[in-house]
Amino acid sequence: MVVRRVVQEGDTFAQAAAWAKVSKSTVWEWVGRWREATAAEQASLACLAERSSRPQHSPAQVPVEEAARICELRESTGWSPRRLADEPTITRPHSTVHQVLRRGGCSRRPALERPAIVRYQWPCPGQLLHMDVKKFGKFTEPGHKVTGDRTRRSRRVGWEYCHSIVDDCSRLAYSELHDDERADTVTAFTERALDFFLNHGVVAERLMTDNAFAYVNSRSLRELLDRRSIGHLRTRPYTPRTNGKVERYQQTLQREWAYALEYASSDARRASLPHWMRHYNERRTHSALGDRTPLTRVREVTGLNS
């Protein structure tokens, strides 16, 4: 031990430091602790234990009460550190306020409360249909989403648009792929979709869409809905969850059809859509329907066996 070599063996501080390969100031510190310690502390070597380098006094440190007040004000108002520093009851610069918030774990703004989710389901098929469109990139060879190889990029050759309508009650769905989302395309698709639902005994009463131009400014679509006595409902702006049935369907469409297989091209993917649609409507069960298929749900409610 370095202290013993100095105290008992008579080594100089320089000799003890050279032997222990430490600085002379370190030897001075250890020997000083030894000489100031009691006999019990010397016997247990407690006087030579590691000590924290934290200062014993921090006059510039923010008191606990003030730090708690800063954090409480932050949680209740969501103000920034600069805004908090302007508060008359706080006498610290904004940089110090930011440090207090970071130490207190509240440097991020409190999350806004999300509105309560209101779930609904119309009791009969056709009482409400949901319509939306999903954009997919065209390609001439498989991309990284299905191959997993991000080093090889497929050349995109434009976009194609999957137009879909879903029945709120039964989840019965109809989709088509088109090269655009113009008003005349939307109207023609809607007419074919309504005929599809009618062939399965589903008479449309209401159609819900978002506020896309092709939906709200299409004269041909408005005339089609008027001829068939179908009401047109619109979602609130920037509130896609209102049209949640078709939004959820599009997630399933993307996961189980668009990206499920390694298609040779977007043309091959387009050709597979009718087959997947039959699978979705006739074979794929839904937990929300009691593990029944959409077509089974329609037949149960309408009493048709088409």
UniProtKB/TrEMBL annotation:
Pfam families reported for this sequence: LZ_Tnp_IS481, rve_3
GO biological process, one term: DNA integration
GO molecular function, one term: nucleic acid binding
InterPro entries according to UniProt: DNA-bd_IS481-type (IPR024967), Homeodomain-like_sf (IPR009057), Integrase_cat-core (IPR001584), IS481-like_transpos (IPR047656), RNaseH-like_sf (IPR012337), RNaseH_sf (IPR036397)
Integrase catalytic domain sequence ranges: 138-302
The protein's name in its UniProt record: Mobile element protein
Source species taxonomy: Bacteria, Bacillati, Actinomycetota, Thermoleophilia, Solirubrobacterales
